[in-house]
Write a structure and sequence with these properties.
single chain; 2,3-Dihydroxybiphenyl 1,2-Dioxygenase, domain 1; 4 helices; 16 strands; globular; eight-stranded mixed beta sheet; alpha+beta; about 240 residues
Amino acid sequence: MDSRLLTITFDVHNPARLAKFWAGVLDRELLNMDRGVLLPGDDTQPGLRFVPGDAKKAGPNRIHLHLTSASLADQQHTVAKSLGLGASHLDVGQLPEEEHVVLADPEGNEFCVIEPGNNFLAECGFLGEIACDGSQDVGRFWSQALGWPLVWDQDDETAIQSPNGGTKVAWGGPPVPAKVMRNRQRFDLTPADGDQKAEVDRLLALGATRLEIGADGAVELADPDGNEFCVNGGS
């Protein structure tokens, strides 16, 4: 039994505003929920969910998004569109010869607009990659947790991808920055067969640790690198 990656959830100060920004960038619909706003995904592109939260930002996030480009003009269009919606340029120490563009969304979450011709993200779709700080062990954990094959496992770096293709999830290997507070972004999962308890037990056996049960009944766990994630109660 495998979990299904439902969404990347963002804890934010203004869910409606940030959801509107990302809906404009990704050209997706907005779906208002009891708590927060969802940008639904599909079998190859994960959804994004924005919920109220007070997690503070201390340095770069452990997760950031990579958007792909079909051409240089397409990359420039995505950058201009993002800036027009409220993004800002961000200096994270990138070198002048690097061709990707680093931006921050209106709440300071980093994302990159990748240059055309990037072979690693070829045919991954517009939301090409969920780029994570993390160890080789955590990449292998998530491969087993989601039932997604490893498409890269070299030099302590790992990447996984759904059997249906689409967005890759990648971990950059050491050095992994120390975790000093709760992450602002997390994975939300649902059991493939709806059996939350059995799925939590399976994930614990794979190396997760139990944290707490939320008011909505979701069980919060941490992966081997200490990153929080939730297992929902149904499909």
